[in-house]
Design a protein that fits this description.
Length: 241
């Protein structure tokens, strides 16, 4: 009798293990792995693509803004186009819109008006930031090329006079106020212009990729924001299991 009992217990244990294995396989095939694969396919370095772009835009926009204000503090004669803090401010605004977009619950096919509006704002502002950064790179490169041909002299105790062509009496002359040392002025401005060109170029590429991701999300498979799973879908899956 004990032998029969142990045999029955073994058979029940084996049936339980088989049932649990079958249930695990069903869960793997029907439930969580699809969501896990979707999450993994839309992440980069552990972050979702919009979050990664928003963080990059915030860091780059802050750097461009700070550097622009530092350039404006060197000399009061520098024009607004030569101190592109305006491009950095636009990029910071774009990053804030990206963070707002991440807080909105995801709905397929943009069923909510708020979600569609925020996505459209992020796309348009990213395109605007792309244009602003390209303009900033162009202005910085133009001024940098001019400064490589400068011949500077101290005109007054607090100003520096630079000429493009000393042989031409009608050549263009640039006067920088609040600059006691012409040599340090030109070296600092050259360094700042190179940094502005590099930062704005990288930011323009990031904004371009952000626009591509939004386009891909609209017409292909990318999603943004918090993933929302309705309760009806989970109930149906439990019934199937």
């Amino acid at each position: 009798q004990t032998g029969k009992a142990t045999g029955g217990e073994k058979s029940t244990d084996s049936s339980k293990t088989q049932d649990s294995a079958v249930k695990k396989k069903q869960k793997k095939t029907k439930g969580d792995p699809k969501a896990g694969q979707e999450e993994e396919s839309h992440t980069c370095c552990g972050c979702r693509f919009p979050l990664l772009f928003a963080l990059l835009q915030l860091a780059l926009g802050t750097s461009i803004t700070v550097l622009g204000f530092l350039m404006a503090g060197i000399s009061s004669s520098l024009l607004v186009r030569d101190t592109p803090y305006w491009a950095g401010i636009i990029v910071c605004v774009v990053s804030l819109v990206g963070f707002v977009m991440l807080c909105i619950s995801y709905q397929p096919d943009e069923k909510t008006c708020v979600q569609f509006t925020v996505k459209l704002m992020y796309f348009l502002l990213s395109a605007l930031a792309l244009v602003a950064c390209v303009l900033a790179v162009a202005f910085a490169a133009h001024h940098y090329l001019q400064m490589t041909k400068y011949t500077c002299d101290t005109l007054l105790p607090d100003s520096c006079q630079c000429k493009l062509d000393t042989a031409d009496p009608l050549g263009r002359t640039f006067i920088y106020q609040d600059a006691a040392d012409c040599g340090s002025l030109t070296t600092m401005l050259n360094l700042y212009f190179l940094l502005q060109m590099g930062l704005n170029l990288i930011t323009a590429l990031v904004c371009l990729l952000a626009c591509f991701v939004m386009w891909k999300h609209r017409y292909q498979v990318f999603y943004v924001g918090v993933r929302f799973y309705p309760l009806t879908a989970t109930e149906d899956q439990q019934q199937k299991v």
